[in-house]
Amino acid sequence: MKIVSNKNNLQILHEDNHIIVVNKRVGDIVQGDKTGDKPLSEVVKEYIKDKYNKPGEVFLGVVHRLDRPTTGIVVFARTSKALTRLNELFKNRETQKTYWAIVKNKPSKSEDNLIHFLKRNEKNNTSKAHLKEVPDSKLASLDYKIIKELNNYFALKINLHTGRHHQIRAQLSAIGSPIKGDLKYGFDRSNPDGGIHLHARKLVFIHPVSKENIEIIAPVPDDAIWNAI
């Protein structure tokens, strides 16, 4: 897959008149928040404005988000028509999302379907996974498979069936396999870059305008553990 880089070190995975797909780096925020840090959406707007010499304000719709410490595929809409249709696709789970994660503690099963009820704590921005339904909890489901055993870690492939707050992080922590670097969910030390080893690897969806089948794969970050997969 051809990757286009620009002065902002932006990795473009797919680009056409209606959508643009980016490989998010550790630390990037997808949309502006209370930190005031420059969001990825603004970087992409600048890229479009510069590349196409667009006058005035550039339209860019945020379709979904990734947690700040994670990496991988983020889709933006370049037209209002695409934004409306993409919002429906994501809302109705008409997309296939595959993540890769690195964990230190081997799950008890080499592959499994995890079903929990996640309850979000707004104060500390975490979600807790419960085996049974509790008040204000939401059903969370994913399946995972160990795809490689490394020297000290295990690489998992994860397919999401629902899209809850911190779902993969909370569910893997609940089975005793927190993601490498994820202090918030029980890993014992942080990564040097402040990120976690969770990567939105693959996304399959129907293009909102052309209706063709789109399959995006995002290269993993360049570090020793990811490179070992």
In short:
The protein has 229 residues and is an alpha+beta fold.
Structure description:
With about 230 residues, this protein is of the alpha+beta class. It is built from four helices and eleven strands, in the order ββαββαβββββαββα. Strands 1, 2, 3, 4, 5, 6, 7, 8, 9, 10 and 11 form an eleven-stranded mixed sheet that branches.
What gyration radius follows from the Cα positions, in whole Å? Answer: 18 Å
The averaged pLDDT comes out at: 93
How would you describe the shape? globular
Please indicate the percent range of residues in DSSP E strands (runs of 2 or more): 25-35%
- Unreliable runs: 1-7
Query: Treating each run of at least 4 consecutive H or I residues as one helix, how many helices?
Result: 4
Give me the oligomer status.
single chain
Distance between the termini: 18 Å
Give the structural class: alpha+beta
Largest sheet: 11 strands, mixed
Helix content: 10-25%
Number of strands: 11
Key attributes of the depicted protein:
disordered N terminus, 11 strands, single chain, 16% helix, 229 residues, eleven-stranded mixed beta sheet, alpha+beta
List the helices and strands and how they pair.
Elements: E1 12-15, E2 19-24, H1 40-51, E3 61-62, E4 71-77, H2 80-91, E5 96-103, E6 111-121, E7 126-130, E8 138-149, E9 154-160, H3 167-174, E10 198-206, E11 213-217, H4 224-227
Parallel strand pairs: 4-10
Antiparallel strand pairs: 1-2, 2-4, 3-4, 5-9, 5-10, 6-7, 6-8, 8-9, 10-11
